[in-house]
C-alpha cells in the first residue's frame, strides 16, 4: 500500500469496507482449498465465517484472549462506535457494530501494510470459527 496513507486516520467505516473484502477473500480461499466443491456449498460454508453474528462472536473470543494491540483496540473502538447509515441485515445493531469493528481492524492492518499481522488475525479468525463448528 501507499506508505503516505495513514490508515489510522481513515473513517472507520471505510476501514470496515476494506476489511470486509479482505476477510471475504481470505475465507473464500481457505474454503476452496479445503473443500473443493460446488459454488453454492462454498457460499454456505463462507457464511459461517463472514456473517455479522459469527464475526461478533469471534471478536468476543479475540478480546477475551487479549489478542489486540493498543493501536488495534483504538481502531476497534472507533469501528464499533461509528454511526452507519445502512441498516443491519438479519441482526441487531450491537452485533452489526461488533462485526464492523472487527472488519475495521482488518482494513486498518491491511491498508497500513501490516501483512504478517493481518494474516495472523485472519488465520486466527478461521481457527476460532472452525473450533466453534
From TrEMBL:
<keyword id="KW-0460">Magnesium</keyword>
<dbReference type="InterPro" id="IPR008226">
    <property type="entry name" value="Mini3_fam"/>
</dbReference>
<keyword id="KW-0694">RNA-binding</keyword>
<protein>
    <recommendedName>
        <fullName>Mini-ribonuclease 3</fullName>
        <ecNumber>3.1.26.-</ecNumber>
    </recommendedName>
</protein>
<dbReference type="Pfam" id="PF00636">
    <property type="entry name" value="Ribonuclease_3"/>
</dbReference>
<keyword id="KW-0690">Ribosome biogenesis</keyword>
<comment type="subunit">
    <text>Homodimer.</text>
</comment>
<dbReference type="InterPro" id="IPR036389">
    <property type="entry name" value="RNase_III_sf"/>
</dbReference>
<dbReference type="InterPro" id="IPR000999">
    <property type="entry name" value="RNase_III_dom"/>
</dbReference>
<feature type="active site">
    <location>
        <position position="20"/>
    </location>
</feature>
<comment type="function">
    <text>Involved in correct processing of both the 5' and 3' ends of 23S rRNA precursor. Processes 30S rRNA precursor transcript even in absence of ribonuclease 3 (Rnc); Rnc processes 30S rRNA into smaller rRNA precursors.</text>
</comment>
<keyword id="KW-0698">rRNA processing</keyword>
<keyword id="KW-0378">Hydrolase</keyword>
<dbReference type="GO" id="GO:0006364">
    <property type="term" value="P:rRNA processing"/>
</dbReference>
<keyword id="KW-0255">Endonuclease</keyword>
<feature type="domain" description="RNase III">
    <location>
        <begin position="2"/>
        <end position="133"/>
    </location>
</feature>
<dbReference type="GO" id="GO:0004525">
    <property type="term" value="F:ribonuclease III activity"/>
</dbReference>
<keyword id="KW-0540">Nuclease</keyword>
<dbReference type="GO" id="GO:0005737">
    <property type="term" value="C:cytoplasm"/>
</dbReference>
<dbReference type="GO" id="GO:0019843">
    <property type="term" value="F:rRNA binding"/>
</dbReference>
<keyword id="KW-0699">rRNA-binding</keyword>
<keyword id="KW-0963">Cytoplasm</keyword>
<comment type="similarity">
    <text>Belongs to the MrnC RNase family.</text>
</comment>
Amino acid at each position: 500500500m501507499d506508505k503516505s496513507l495513514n490508515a489510522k486516520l481513515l473513517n472507520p467505516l471505510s476501514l470496515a469496507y476494506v476489511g470486509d473484502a479482505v476477510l471475504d477473500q481470505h475465507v473464500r480461499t481457505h474454503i476452496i482449498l479445503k473443500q473443493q466443491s460446488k459454488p453454492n456449498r462454498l457460499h454456505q460454508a463462507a457464511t459461517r465465517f463472514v456473517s455479522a453474528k459469527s464475526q461478533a462472536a469471534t471478536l468476543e473470543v479475540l478480546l477475551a484472549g487479549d489478542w489486540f494491540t493498543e493501536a488495534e483496540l483504538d481502531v476497534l473502538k472507533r469501528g464499533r462506535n461509528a454511526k452507519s447509515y445502512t441498516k443491519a441485515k438479519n441482526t441487531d445493531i450491537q452485533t452489526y457494530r461488533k462485526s464492523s469493528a472487527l472488519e475495521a481492524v482488518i482494513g486498518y492492518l491491511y491498508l497500513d501494510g501490516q501483512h504478517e499481522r493481518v494474516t495472523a488475525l485472519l488465520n486466527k479468525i478461521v481457527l476460532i470459527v472452525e473450533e466453534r463448528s
